[in-house]
Design a protein that fits this description.
261 residues; alpha/beta; three-stranded parallel sheet; two-stranded antiparallel sheet; 5 strands; globular
């Protein structure tokens, strides 16, 4: 919840509390939704679970989201059992019709399938286990990868739908992870990655991708943080903003220096 708030506001959260929930009634005029609203975009946000953990029905509108849709608003089936998170593929199939036909849209989608736990059977944790049967991964790791496969299929569906609607080339997708896969040990994570997550807190290194089908791929090696994502996007979209209101910086700027250093 704190990391999601950091992405939407480019502000650091307070340690040892869920800042988003604690200050859910605050309004943030510099948040991502309000900035895109000011530039003529239709904004909305989606999550395939309830407000059990984070009060997104309050938080997102107070940051400018014109409409927030939770799992009940979307009419999706879900299970209160912790292991049985909803399908990201079903989530994308259900949510995309709400915004894909808008002329200019900014949609914030919070996925959930890949969450723990992985050490017990679950519908999506076991769905694609056959894909990894010839690997030496632990069963726990395989269940994580099975859940990741469902997310992968959801992203594939999104690209296909944008292409079908003739909007793929004109859409930018910012994809980020808010934390590493809790529920896996460092040793289990190391069986998948090509670097040691035990060194220098490398377990906290998570991917962030900004994608458009027409641009040439560039790998950014700078030490960046979630706090940098919003200023980067605002500059990419040429949206006027006051940098004094953000703790992050545009990572594409040649003069970039990371406050996280």
């Amino acid at each position: 919840g704190n990391n999601e708030m950091t992405v939407m506001t480019s502000l650091y959260s307070i340690n040892n509390t869920c800042t988003a929930n604690k200050y859910k009634k605050n309004e943030y005029f510099q948040a991502i939704f309000n900035m895109f609203n000011n530039s003529g975009y239709s904004t909305s946000s989606y999550h395939s679970y309830t407000d059990k953990y984070y009060s997104r029905h309050t938080i997102h509108p107070n940051m400018g989201s014109s409409k927030f849709y939770g799992v009940k608003d979307l009419g999706m089936e879900y299970d209160e059992k912790y292991e049985e998170w909803p399908s990201d593929l079903t989530f994308f199939e259900t949510a995309m019709p709400y915004y894909i036909n808008e002329d200019k849209f900014m949609a914030f989608m919070t996925t959930v399938t890949t969450h723990q736990t992985y050490n017990v059977p679950s519908t999506l944790g076991d769905k694609y286990l056959d894909l990894f049967e010839n690997t030496e991964y632990s069963t726990t790791t395989k269940r994580y990868l099975s859940k990741m496969t469902e997310l992968d299929k959801a992203l594939g569906y999104m690209l296909e739908e944008l292409d079908r609607a003739g909007k793929l080339e004109d859409t930018v997708i910012a994809l980020f992870a808010d934390h590493y896969p809790y529920g896996l040990t460092n040793a289990q994570i190391n069986t998948v990655l090509d670097y040691d997550v035990n060194v220098r807190q490398e377990v906290d290194r998570t991917p962030m991708v900004i994608y458009n089908s027409t641009i040439k791929p560039v790998k950014v090696e700078k030490y960046t943080s979630l706090v940098d994502l919003l200023p980067t996007l605002l500059n990419m979209f040429d949206i006027d903003y006051d940098p004094r209101l953000y703790l992050g910086n545009d990572i594409m700027d040649e003069k970039y220096f990371g406050r996280v250093q």
